[in-house]
Design a protein that fits this description.
CATH architecture of chain A: Alpha-Beta Complex
Number of helices of chain A: 3
Number of domains of chain A: 1
Shape of chain B: globular
CATH class of chain A: Alpha Beta
Oligomer: heterodimer
Order of helices and strands of chain A: EHEEEHHEEE
Strand content of chain B: under 5%
Helix content of chain A: 25-40%
CATH architecture of chain B: Orthogonal Bundle
Largest interface: A-B, 9 and 12 residues
CATH superfamily of chain B: Ribonucleotide Reductase, subunit A
Number of strands of chain A: 7
Radius of gyration of chain A: 12 Å
Radius of gyration of chain B: 23 Å
Number of strands of chain B: 0
Distance between the termini of chain B: 81 Å
Helix content of chain B: 55-70%
């Protein structure tokens, strides 16, 4: 297994996103760096629209992630409801 | 000379205000949390109000509903001043551009005469009922307890003014300034409007702020908005009156957004204790009777022979909604 990761700028917009990623992926590890948060996870990582919406109290388009996204690693599988990273060989 | 660049991580001494940290832990708080929680003044009032010496200036006893933590009545939309004004500005812009287009191209001419008359008879006088909604919600934000509920109620009050203004604008587009005089006359004297006027005026003198919340935001809005801005709207669209739907778009959007907020308040308050549940359920029953009675003539005017089936459908949906919120009605 290898690690996938996603990194965001640290700000008010990304805080609820990071919080919901950590809640949905118990195996994910948070790495807080100056002005950046990186989330590492073994194997795969999933971001769910529903859990972000629950935290921010409005509808959320997963493409809004891109605004504060710094980098990702892993094969990306994206649809309207989730954004997932994994290594599929 | 050789310079090494390196980053230094500086940990802030505190992440948020102490009172927010006591509730949520010392981590960065959202604007909504900082602008809402524990802002209600609880102690050290100067003197009791002369007009109500048995109560404090801010007092939880102004409603029979009781909560252990008044901040449990939180807003799922997380509206604080900034988020609220940004959201509404966006909607206002969309609504204004609809009106602009209708006026520029004279689209109101294309509305069939009978639909136009229904809009003038039923929608325009509703502006006076909206003013009642503004008064009720202003009362709640003045005498209610806990910023979590008083804050969105003030927004809700302002929104009612907005709806009243859009209804006024509809009157102006359809029939010029005289539409407003006709509507006022209907509100004051026409038999069609007297039951609703009676209901609105009765709510104006209610003292218990949570009772006003139930009577206005849950019952009156829960029954009248689906009727006028969903069912009647479909009637307009289906029969060539899409122009009217363009002008009521804000109301439809707003009703579906705010009903989520109203639902969250009722659900939490009713789940708090069996006493609250009984109290709120009784208020719903009491006001449902008078609102249904008040809406009956308007529904007949709007839907003609379909009136009874539409009315039954809306009432069923409302009852199902209340049951889902944990009320015994």
């Amino acid at each position: 297994m290898s690690t996938v990761f996603i990194a965001f700028q640290t700000n008010d917009d990304t805080r609820p996103i990071v919080e919901s990623i950590l809640a949905d992926n118990p195996h994910a590890v948070l790495d807080e760096q100056p002005a950046m948060v990186k989330i590492n996870a073994e194997g795969s990582l999933v971001i769910k629209r529903e859990s972000i919406e629950e935290r921010i109290g409005r509808s959320f388009d997963l493409q809004e992630l891109q605004i504060n996204l710094i980098t990702i690693s892993g094969h990306l599988d994206e649809d309207d409801d989730q954004f997932s990273l994994s290594w599929k060989n | 000379m050789h310079i090494d660049l390196r980053t230094v991580a500086i940990k802030p001494v505190r992440q948020t205000f102490d009172h927010i940290a006591r509730r949520f832990g010392d981590k960065p708080a959202s604007r909504y949390q900082e602008g809402t929680y524990d802002l209600q003044q609880t102690d050290i009032f100067h003197y009791r109000p002369l007009w109500e010496p048995e109560l404090q200036l801010f007092d939880t006893r102004r409603t029979k509903v009781q909560m252990k933590d008044w901040y449990a009545l939180k807003d799922p939309r997380q509206f604080y001043y900034g988020a609220y004004t940004i959201a509404r500005a966006r909607q206002q812009e969309a609504a204004e551009s609809n009106f602009e287009m209708i006026e520029e191209r004279g689209l109101a001419e294309s509305i069939p005469a009978d639909l136009k008359q229904i809009a003038l008879d039923v929608l325009v006088p509703m502006r006076h009922a909206e003013w009642g909604g503004n008064m009720g919600n202003s009362f709640i934000s003045a005498y209610g307890y806990g910023t979590a509920i008083t804050q969105p109620c003030l927004y809700h009050a302002m929104d009612h003014l907005a709806v009243a203004q859009y209804l006024t604008h509809i009157g102006l587009v359809l029939n010029g300034p005289e539409a407003l005089d006709t509507a006022k006359e209907a509100w004051m004297n026409s038999a069609l409007w007297q039951p609703l006027r009676r209901h609105v005026e009765n709510v104006l003198v209610v003292q218990d702020w949570f009772e006003i919340f139930v009577a206005q935001n849950l019952v009156l809005e829960g029954l009248s908005y689906p009727l006028f801005y969903d069912y009647l709207d479909s009637e307009f669209s289906a029969n060539g009156g899409t122009v009217i739907s363009m002008m009521t778009r804000f109301m439809a959007e707003w009703a579906s957004e705010t009903s989520k907020w109203v639902d969250a308040q009722i659900k939490v308050a009713a789940a708090e204790s069996p006493e609250n549940k009984a109290l709120i359920s009784n208020w719903v029953k009491q006001y449902r009777t008078s609102v249904l009675e008040a809406l009956t003539p308007l529904v007949h005017r709007s839907f003609g022979d379909k009136a009874d089936s539409v009315f039954a459908e809306v009432t069923d949906q409302f009852n199902a909604r209340c049951t889902k919120l944990g009320l015994a009605i």
